[in-house]
Specification:
Structural class: mainly alpha
Oligomer: single chain
Helix content: over 70%
Largest sheet: 2 strands, antiparallel
Mean pLDDT: 82
Amino acid sequence: MSAVSMGDLAQSVLLRRQNVEIKTEISRLTSELSSGRVQDVTRHLGADLSYLTDVERSLQLNAAVTNSTKEAASYTAMMQSSLNHMQEALGGLSSEILGLNASGLNQTAQHVSSTARAAMDTILSTLNTSVAGRALFAGSTTDAAAMQGAETILSDLRGAVAGQTTLAGVEAVLDNWFDVGGGYDSVAYSGGSENLSPFQLGDGERIELNIKADDAVFRETLKAVSLAVLSQDNTLGFGADLKTQMLTRSGELSFAAGNEITGTRANLGYAEARIEDATVRLAVQKTSFEMARNALISADPYDTVVKLEQTQFRLESLYTATARLSELSLVGFLR
């Protein structure tokens, strides 16, 4: 059997190629040792990537739902704060009205009316609150304010109650104006007719924050405040008795509206609890998916170190062989 010899050029090319392959292997093993993950996932999993793909997809879905949950948490927190602010303004007005007495009634009533106007501005401003450029209480129309300004509303109300001489007459006009289909819808509310889209909480669960500025609780709140403001409007020419009756009735309605806001906040609190539960569940799911992914693509540190040492030894051996071959010469061979 004849021996196959290799020329110097071929041998040099072979040595360089082996040098490159070994260095590449060392680089790969070093990277896997530092990152803890294999570089060639396909080879590591035997070309079966179905389970890894499923885990990655689950992680992406988890991230999307987590973002939705965070947004829902932000919405509910701001809504809760807004309702608290509104309730405080209404409570302050109610307390002042209940504190009215016969002495200096006219001057005190004027002060209460000013308080009512300030409360109205506060309530309308609160209903126009937005988060990240999206209106909270405008329903599906998140790119516009939910309510018109106080002067726009009061101007229309003045025209509606003008000429009334009894509390029953004033209340009937206000009831009609604040009822569905009345002036509140055509003049005051400028939000959408549809509710805000539900927030996804994962596992088929979602939460609906169906709190809009045209809800009954806000209609009643603004009706109570408007009654107090209009009671001291000199352009309407109301008598002293009617003014007092309107203020008293405003106090009663304010107290009732405050209780309604409490109920709304309680429902919102239940939504916040569900969102918190979903946040915890999603965090646990994320950890589980990450552990599953790491189990699939993580590099065994002990095995990697052993391979790295073996590869380094191969490189050193290659360098030794190359050095010895480079010392060969024709003179040495002829000796």
